[in-house]
Amino acid sequence: MKKFYYVILLVICIAVVGLLILFGRFLAGSQSLEDAKPVIYLYPEQEQEVSVRLDYDGELTCTYPEYKEGWEITAKPDGRLTDKTGMEYNYLYWEGTSDREYDFSEGFCIAGEDSAEFLEGALAELGLTRREANEFIVYWLPRLEANAYNLISFQTEAYTEHAGLIIEPEPDTVIRVFMAYRPADSRQEIPEQKLSAPVRKGFTVVEWGGCEVGK
Length: 215
What we know:
Layout: H1 2-31, E1 33-43, E2 48-56, E3 59-64, E4 71-75, E5 81-82, E6 88-89, E7 92-98, E8 108-111, H2 115-125, H3 130-145, E9 149-155, H4 157-160, E10 163-168, E11 173-184, E12 204-212
Parallel strand pairs: 11-12
Antiparallel strand pairs: 1-7, 1-12, 2-4, 2-10, 3-7, 4-5, 5-6, 8-9, 9-11
């Protein structure tokens, strides 16, 4: 009889541990989101030294070139960037995790198979050049197409408030495109988001990135 009780106790202990692990994973997933591949393009009117720093309320997980206390870079009008060692880059790259909540009160519900066509139009309205949009789409398209549908909302205040950019000299135009999306199994109704972008003039800074939010 004692052996029977020991077996029951062992089963209960295993079940409790399993539930605690699952609960911990749930909490971890609900508390942090990955701001994936924000990249920053710099287009000065003439070649110049530029300082770029992030005011991010999360934890940086990867940067390239290495961020350290910020990026000190030589920027050219065509977007080419060079560090102090002479290494050349197309953009500045960073990723991080934070507990920021994103706003889905407006947006779009897009079938996975229609993602490329949707992004081509939306990114043009948001002010990205064809090259910038192409690099955005190449990165995000496989993730979006893997889902039956995606709720997509381009963030403005919710993103810029927790991921500030401090750039010297100060740019004349800043375009920041951040896409939050939530996978869905079926089409859902959502008020359509209005998209727009400032006219590029003078020293222009462009950034794009995104984040998957759980169902």
